[in-house]
Amino acid sequence: MVRSSRWSSSDAALRAVQVAFDVEQQVIEAVRFAAFENQLSPSDQIRKILGLPCTSKPVRPRLTVTLSDADYAVLAERFAIDVEDKRRIKEVLHQELINFSKKQVTPKK
Questions:
Q1: How far apart are CA 94 and CA 62, in angstroms?
Q2: Exposure letters 60-84 (e unless 16+ CB within 10 A, then b)
Q3: Which residue has the higher pLDDT, 62 or 98?
Q4: Is the pLDDT at 2 greater than 60, yes or no?
Q5: Are 74 and 66 a contacting pair, CB within 8 Å?
Q6: Which of 13, 60, 69, 86 is most deeply buried (CB count within 10 A of its CB)?
C-alpha cells in the first residue's frame, strides 16, 4: 500500500496517547500554578517537569466560560440589556473581568 506523504506526518500524532494522572489536589495546584507562572498550558508544564519537549505554539491568552440561555437571561436582567443582544452582554462581561482584575493584588515575581 502506497502512503501519501501528506498523511505520513500525522502518523506520530495518531500514535500519541493521552495520559491522565490521579494525584492529590496539592500536586494539581502546584502544576497549575507553575504553568500560570511560566505562561504554559498545564500539559506543557507537565512535559517541562518530565523533561520532554514542548511543541505547543504560544496561544493568545484567553479565558472561557460556557453560558446557557438561562445564564444570558440572568446577565441581561442584571445589566439591563436585551437578552438577545449577546454581543453587548459579552462586552459588559469583558469589562466586568477587567474591573475584577484591577481590584486584585498581583503577586510579585
A1: 11
A2: eeeeeeeeeeeebeebbeeeebeee
A3: 98
A4: no
A5: no
A6: 86
